[in-house]
Amino acid sequence: MTDEMSTADEEEEYSVEKIIDKRIRKGKVEYYLKWKGYGDEDNTWEPEEHLDCPELIAEYEARKKIPPSSIPNKGVSIKEKKERGRVKKTLEEPPGPRGYERGLNADEIIGATDAGGELTYLMKWIGSEEADMVPARIVNARSPHIVIKFYDGRMSWKSS
Length: 160
Known about the structure:
GO terms for molecular function: chromatin binding. This protein is an alpha+beta fold and about 160 residues long. The protein has 2 domains: about 15-85, CATH 2.40.50.40; about 100-150, CATH 2.40.50.40.
């Protein structure tokens, strides 16, 4: 076998200079790589299983674990957080008085949840387009007839 043939049979190997980004495509992790000796226009996405640079991967992952707030002028936009799958949906109460505190009267209970560990009703108010989450203990005390109406509409009676 000649040197020329053995070189042709061998796959050319490139060296990774640094890992720029990471994504998941079709359930597989891919890294965006800067190659040694090549310009930015030659950066490519490569599947993790094709890479042989565990130290660069570990360095990249460690760098990503630092919260953006601790990096000066390096905030992360909501779009970036969504792309990374790091947006947590939370129920935050809007500022200002809500529900009974606004002097409103309850119209009806739209729904109920115990997601926060406490039974809470989603309340519709007379004369308002806004609905509020109100703890059941407050609604039970202030508008028991609304609570009875809510549950009465959801009960089914069997007749014999």
